[in-house]
Structures are given as structure tokens and as C-alpha cells.
């Protein structure tokens, strides 16, 4: 499958396993990226939300591995870090939505065999056969599974201590200002409007807390720059108190099923430090909870750089996100009454500014996965320790400007 090959690079643990049959084919490999990553198709339609065929595919992978190695491996150990694709052709597919992004069919055709049984049996059988014929691949796949198992067992003790600490901290958690409605409130019509702002420092979080809608908007305050989690194992999620509290606030330890907010919004200053904190938070989610990004729950709050207003009639106020918008807004106001404020950080905004900033006209940018580049390579380039390619780029693009003498 060309798509799977385009999404993998030198971080994969073994060559892509590709098996093809009548009306069904699949491909898998393991990478160094936490989580499970799948691409599924029905009659050529990309089912971005999966469905019954993807669930059966996941089940078949575990069965195939267990059958081959004659051991009842934990399903999470088999599937962690997996990258897989499955494509099926069935008659009269039934989808759970008009956009055809999630398959709901349970049979291959009207009165035909069960879809789940067909896929599970094919995937398990063909995977078992492939591993028998390719011993080197089987060995490397087993190494990845054993590594996952070792990590899971190491995490067990760390989790217990971290969860006890998190429960204790949550009794009086000053980092989280929660809202009253959550995404898990199935019958509440406001659940899709829920959001949490991840802010830097007490100043910005205090202002957002004052201006927010307490029904649907929560605030989580970071203490300065969080730890760079790139290249670290998932133990850091539990050993680092700040990351553990954030994970607990979102309730995503075991997946997105119990995610408490529809939008997770990174709200940092538009300066160098703010950009760095933004990258650190994005790295944390991309490395350990990539499904949060895949399902488009992660956003960046674009804060205005300027406020342009009439100092006499303050109702005539413009919030501008660049110099061009600032200059255009300035022309709308008499020069004598013109007042331009340059925001250096979110903490400089008052609650009235923030009510508009996080209201109906909020500027949000969705964080998305790269389409044609490896996520692992991107993280290594931007967040790795002194990577040579990044050093070379800085040296080649470094500019010096002459300073005029007074």
C-alpha cells in the first residue's frame, strides 16, 4: 500500500508487511511512535474514523501474533507503536454518517458472511504465514512487542504512585480551573462547545479565568517551561508532575473515549518563550497522545498583537494580528483620538479584551499531522538535542544587521 510507505521512514522497526487477497489487503509495520496509527478504506473510500473493518483488523493482528508465537501477548503490547492500513471491498456498505468516514456494516454483503469473522481470520492467517516465511521480520516484530511489554510493566509501578499523587493534588489543584460541562456529558447540548486553555504562568491564566465562560471553558496553568519530552519513554508522563496533572485533567490516560473537552487549546504569548512553550506542549501530545491531534482536538490560540481604538469612543476598537491589519484599522480612527497598544503577552490584556479574544470570534489554528513527512523526523529536527541539520540551517540562515552609530 503506497499510503503506508509514504507515512513511514527510517524509524520503522522492520520492512512493511503487505498481504493481499480477494477483496481485502492489509499492510503493517511498527515504528518508534507511541500509540496506534491506522488507515482504513472501504471500496476505495478513506474511512478516517475507522469502523467495524478497522476494529476487526486490530483484532486480527493480535490473533495472528499470538498464533505465530504461541503466546497470549497483551493486546496493547502487540499494537503499541503499530502503523497499519486495511482495505476491503464489500457489497452495499453501511456507513454511520453521511460523510462515509466510519463503516457500520456487519456483513460483507446482504445475507453474506460476518464482516468481522472474515477480516479477523484473513489477517491472522496471512500474518502468521508471512512471519513463518520471513524470520528476520518476525524477530524484529517480536523485539518491538517485548519492548512494549517491558515498558508497560515498568509503567505499572510508576502509574500507581503518580495517580495517587494526582488524586491528592486534584483535591486542591490550583493548576486547573474547571468548567461545569464536559464532553463526556452525553445529553448536554453544550458538550461540543467545551474547551480547555493551556496557559503559561499565573498572569495569563488569571485573566482568562476571569473572562471565560465557566460553563464550557476550563483553564490549565503551566508553571514556566515544561520538560521537553522528545525521545523520552512514556514514564515521563507519570514521573513529571505537570505532565501527569495535564493528562489527568484531560482524562486521556486510556485513550480519547473519556476526553473531557472537545477543544484543547494552547494559549501562549506570541514571543520567543511563548513559541517555545507551545512547541513543548505540542511535542508532548504528538509523542504520547497523537490520536488527540489525528481527531483534530488540539488547537493554538492566535492572540492579537495590537489593539487599535478611539481613546474617546472605546466602543470603536479593533484587534489586529499583524502590522497590515493595524495600519488599516488606524485609518478608521481620527489621528487625534488614535490609541494603539502593542500586546507583549496575554497577561497584558484585561478581562474585557479576553472576553472578545475567546468569544465567538476566537482565532484558532488546528494542529494537524504532516501529510507527506515523517512525524518522527519533524520532532527530531525541532525538538532533538542539537541535531546537525538544525545547526546547519541556523548557520546558513543567520543574519547580522549593522547598527547605526548615534
What does this 3D model show about the protein?
- Mean pLDDT is 85; it is low at 6-10.
- The chain is elongated and about 80 Å long.
- The longest helix is centred in the middle third of the chain and has 36 residues, at 135-170.
- It is of the alpha/beta class and 406 residues long.
- Strands 6-8-7-9-10-14 form a six-stranded mixed sheet. The chain has a five-stranded mixed sheet with strand order 1-2-5-3-4, with helices on one face. Strands 12-11-13 form a three-stranded antiparallel sheet, with helices on one face.
- The protein has a domain at 2-151: Ribosomal Protein S5, domain 2 (2-Layer Sandwich).
- α2 (52-69) packs parallel to α4 and α5 (135-170) crosses α8.
- It is built from 14 helices and 14 strands.
- β3 (37-42) and β4 (45-46) form a beta hairpin.
Key phrases:
single chain; 406 residues; alpha/beta; six-stranded mixed beta sheet; five-stranded mixed beta sheet
Following the backbone from N to C, one meets helices and strands in this order, namely: HEEEEHHEHHEEHEHHEHHEEEHEHEHH
> Spatial order of the strands in the main sheet?
6-8-7-9-10-14
Count of alpha/pi helices: 14
CATH topology heading of the domain at 2-151: Ribosomal Protein S5, domain 2
Low-confidence stretches: 6-10
Mean pLDDT: 85
Q: Summarize the biggest pleated sheet.
A: 6 strands, mixed
Instruction: Provide the helix percentage.
Output: 40-55%
What is the first-to-last residue Cα distance? 65 Å
CA radius of gyration: 25 Å
Strand content: 15-25%
The CATH class assignment of the domain at 2-151 is Alpha Beta
Helix/strand/pairing class, anyone? alpha/beta
CATH architecture of the domain at 2-151: 2-Layer Sandwich
- Tell me, briefly, the overall form: elongated
| Total number of strands | 14
